[in-house]
Design brief:
The complex is a heterodimer of chains A (372) and B (127). Chain A is of the alpha+beta class and 372 residues long. Chain A has three domains: 3-55 and 148-240, Gyrase A, domain 2 (2-Layer Sandwich); 58-143, Alpha-Beta Plaits (2-Layer Sandwich); 287-363, Beta Barrel (Elongation Factor Tu (Ef-tu), domain 3). Chain A contains nine helices and 20 strands. Chain A is globular and about 65 Å long. Chain B has a single domain (8-108), classed as OB fold (Dihydrolipoamide Acetyltransferase, E2P). Helix content of chain B is 20%, strand content 34%. Classes of the chains: A alpha+beta (372), B alpha+beta (127). Chain A binds chain B through residues 33-34, 37-39, 42, 232, 235-236, 298-300, 302, 324-325, 327, 332, 354, and chain B through 36-37, 39-40, 42, 58, 60-63, 65, 84.
């Protein structure tokens, strides 16, 4: 079997081909990295709107009378105030206080939670969750990813484009809230969430309905500047907005506190997996921390480039987790782990880019925040 | 996709143009399209000696880093300095303003394709 044959197709695969998408393998799926131009797609999302197929994301349901307790136990955030119709960002934790994954927790019903997880981690997450649920009465873990398609429409024009296709009052859906409604005549969970730093929605539909919704959004939004956007723009957009990506900023070796995600660590909620380690880190600090940086010398830092404190130091002190030429700012930016005593804004360090060791400077994260 | 008739091509999608005892090098329209918008170009310095088949610089898009391989051995006698401030010339004008370097040397013995053979190669890669 060749690689392309073993890749899964999302329900929107044919739409991507029709739009000229350049298909690449990603987390076991064939997905468009770009359609026309990464920079144009990126700019469209920042200034107008972009449409993303995120059907590869995993949808895992936790149900049963003990579902809430279970979710509280696996997550470092506190979901006790999470009402039905609201979502929260959190980490799925190992006992070491590190990330199995990062995810969005949606409260669908009193005893039903939808976890939206990374495609690349889906099988690992489900196995981990099912292992924890084994022998526990009152909680069921179910991977329903194949029953869902997901379309993200992101950018300042996203609300008016979606509003034209739904009778649901979108102005009533505030950030990180969701409702069931109809979009283009198809049932959809309409969530005001996203991974770009812009306003917008993530629309969950059945796989069968997804192409209709996708085409209707493009027909409605196209004349206003909506374009389909690929994985390339999705990555640069989340990067500029300082959002972590599993396998880059966060992984099984990093804790939320090291990654600058202290705001999702809620020790006061009581016991949960990994709490002891995180409590110790809150008290004593962490040895390293994630920073944002800009290049001083000419060059583009990339994922896995090593970082050094001195120009001639032999030992690296960390590595770049993500780095690229920022389409919005037109300069080379990156994120990296540095020793905590070297993370002050303005601190300088070096990035080894192939044969050259180039200067970089710590700057504030996120690089980009939209004006509200 | 445009393939100028007055140039010769490599299998790795560079083009070369012989000018007396030196050779101008760039990347093809197909190569720049595959790479995406070029945002950073690192070229060898004038006076550097480059070896055929060895990396002599890099082209970077937002998404990817691509090595520029020297199609021949020789001394770099000119580098396109305009690319430092306008790397997008590689996309906008790959066969002209987006040229990369001029190397003193000969294409003799190089495995080069004429425009027709290069067109056949592109056909094959796109299927």
């Amino acid at each position: 079997m060749t690689e392309s044959e073993s890749l899964q197709k999302t329900p929107l695969y044919d739409q991507h081909l029709a739009a000229g998408g350049r298909m690449v393998p990603f987390a076991g799926y064939s997905l468009p990295v770009q359609y026309t131009s990464l920079a144009q797609e990126h700019t469209a999302v920042r200034t107008k709107a972009g449409l993303f197929d995120v059907s590869h994301m995993g949808e895992v349901f936790i149900t049963g009378p003990k579902a809430f307790d279970f979710v509280q136990n696996i997550s470092c955030n506190d979901h006790s105030k999470l009402a039905i119709g609201r979502a929260q960002y959190t980490g799925l934790m190992y006992a070491q206080g590190t990330f199995v994954d990062d995810m969005l927790v949606h409260r669908m019903e009193e005893n039903e939670f939808l976890l939206v997880v990374n495609a690349a981690n889906r099988q690992k997450d489900v196995a981990y969750l099912q292992g924890l649920a084994e022998g526990v009465d009152g909680v069921v873990v179910e991977d329903r990813s194949d029953q869902w398609a997901q379309i993200a429409i992101q950018g300042p024009l996203a609300p008016e484009i979606v509003q034209a296709l739904t009778s649901t009052d979108l102005s009533a859906i505030r950030y990180y809230r969701f409702v069931w409604g109809e979009v283009a005549g198809r049932r959809a969970l309409i969530a005001r969430t996203g991974y770009t730093g812009e306003d917008g929605f993530e629309l969950y539909t059945t796989p069968e309905d997804a192409p209709t919704v996708w085409r209707a959004l493009l027909a409605e939004g196209g004349p206003k500047g909506l374009v389909p956007a690929g994985l390339g723009a999705r990555d640069t957009l989340r990067f500029e907005s300082g959002m972590c990506l599993y396998g880059h900023e966060i992984d099984a070796e990093t804790t939320p506190l090291e990654a600058g995600l202290g705001w999702i660590v809620k020790l006061a909620k009581g016991d949960f997996i990994g709490r002891d380690i995180l409590e110790a880190q809150v008290e004593n600090g962490t040895g390293r921390r994630l920073v944002g940086f800009e290049m001083i010398d000419r060059g583009i830092a990339r994922n896995d480039h090593e970082v050094f404190l001195g120009e001639t130091d032999k030992n690296s002190v960390g590595s770049v987790t993500s780095g690229t030429q920022s389409p919005t700012f037109g300069k080379a930016l990156g994120m990296a782990y540095l020793p905590t005593d070297h993370t002050e804004i303005g601190s300088e360090f070096f990035v080894q880019i192939r044969s050259r060791r180039l200067r970089a400077r710590v700057i504030r994260l996120p690089f980009y925040s939209r004006k509200k | 996709m445009s393939i100028p008739q007055d140039l010769l091509y490599t299998k790795s999608h560079e083009w070369v143009r012989v000018e007396g005892d030196s050779v101008v090098i760039g990347i093809t329209h197909y190569a720049q399209d595959q790479l995406g918008e070029v945002v950073f170009v690192e070229l060898p310095a004038v006076g550097d000696a480059v070896e055929a088949g060895e990396e002599m610089g890099t082209l970077e898009s937002v998404k990817a880093v691509s090595e520029i391989l020297a199609p021949l051995s020789g001394e770099v006698i000119e580098a396109n300095e305009a690319l430092e401030d306008s790397p997008d010339l590689v996309n906008k004008s790959p066969f002209d303003e987006g040229w990369l370097v001029k190397i003193k040397g000969s294409v003799e013995g190089m495995d080069l394709l004429d425009p027709q053979s290069y067109a056949t190669l592109l056909e094959a890669e796109q299927h």
